[in-house]
Each structure stands twice: as structure tokens, then as C-alpha cells.
User: What shape does this take?
Amino acid sequence: MNKKTYSIIGDFHTHTMVSQHAYSTTQELVEASRRQGFQAIAITNHGPEMMDGAIAHHFLCMDGLPEVIDGIRLYKGAEVNIKNFAGRIDLPVSILRNLDFTIASFHVEAIDPGTIEENTAAWLAVIQNRYVDCLGHAGNPIYPFHHEQVVKELHKHGKILEINANSFIVRKGSEKNCALLIELCKHYQVPIVVNSDAHSAWSVGEVTPAMELLESLDYPPEMILNHTLEGISGFIQRRKQEKRMDFFTGPAQSPQLSTI
Ligand SMILES: [Zn+2]
Ligand SMILES: [Zn+2]
Assistant: This one.
């Protein structure tokens, strides 16, 4: 693998021990990022619907953390749970609009898998939610959906797809779906973010299988947003402006989608 071309500058899906099934502190994740030679990290703990997810107040108060710790740019995020097939998620707009990076994911703790039609409807609604930036581990085969329809919607709304390296280990069958999604993202010019979904400091930046798949499919490295700090920070900056447009345009497009 060409490590220079297919590499990341930071992991944008990580969990701290705010959840009992994760094992490191923010400081330890930052130190791990430094060891990897990274420039940034996003802390994206589980929303409250997960059995040991963070309480809503955790996300509200992240604003008080420094923007840079030991030279690592710290982005404050969340991995929200999709709660139903109308795309309802488990943090309120009042919190989501101030976060840097919000990933929305299906987890069995929060929602039983639906039909292809139901799962597709949920993804489409989540993409239309102004406050969600990225779809998390969408390759999970237990939540099948119409891939092309969803990728086209991502393109339409300027949102992105995650390729989650942890899925290749814990969500068996993800690789085939990820390959199809990567091909579609290439076709529809949808950017990708490549993450480890680290639940401890020892996993930060472990994205090798995902990168190998992207390279084998010739996905343009410049479209991997966390390949450069400029790429991912530019995206986050644009999205933050869009999230705050509700100051001028009134309530969000679909406020019911992101109200607890
Ligand atoms: Zn997840
Ligand atoms: Zn996660």
C-alpha cells in the first residue's frame, strides 16, 4: 500500500471511557494521536440511547474543552443513535448545532434492523437532518438499504460517508457493502472519512484494512476528507455554518428528527 497517498491525519470516530465499554480518557486518545503523528482527533461518544451512552449534558459541556491539546486539534463530536425509521436521533438540536462533527449510526441497542425500505427511509431522513454530518458504519450487513439511493442523497445534501475499519472486524460482511458504497461514492463524488471507531487509545488510527480497500478500488485519495487537515477542517467549517443557518431561517428543516 502506498502509505503516503492513502493515509489519514486524524481519527474522526473515537470513544472515551465516558462509556463503560470504552477504556481510555480524552488525554490518552490525544497522546495516541501524537504517537501516530496525527494533527487532529474527533471525540464522538455514543448518544444517550445506548445502554452506557453519554448523557446529553456530556455533549453540551464539551464546548469547554480546549480546541488544541498538546498540538492536536480537538473536534467535539457525537455518534448519535438512529431511534426509528423516520430518522429520529437521540440528541436535541440545541446540543447538535454546537457540535463540530456528528455521526449517525444504527446500533442494535437502539433500533432493531428493519426492512430494506425502512432502513433506507431512516438513512434518507438522517441525511436530510441539518445537524448530522456523516453516516457511521453503513456497511453493516444487518441493516441493508438501497445503497445508490442513499449515496445520491449524500451528494445532494453535501454530507459524507464513513468507512469504518472496525466494521471489518466486528461487523462481519461489512467489507462487501463497503466496497459497493466506495464505488458509488466515487461515481457520485461523495467524500469519505476513514475512521477506526477506537474504543481505547491502542486502536486510534487503526484504519489499514479500510485504506487498503479504498486503494484497491482506486477511490481518489483527495476525496478522503481526513487525508488532509484542510480537507476535514474545511468540511467541518462549512457544516458548522449550515447548522447555524437556523438563526436566520427559523427552525431546522426537520426539527422532529433530532428532538429527544
Ligand atoms: Zn457505532
Ligand atoms: Zn463508534
About this structure: The two ends are 44 Å apart (CA to CA). The pocket of zinc ion (ligand 2) is lined by residues 13, 15, 79, 197 (CB under 6 Å). Strands lie at 10-11, 40-46, 68-69, 72-81, 101-105, 134-135, 160-164, 192-195. The longest strand covers residues 72-81.
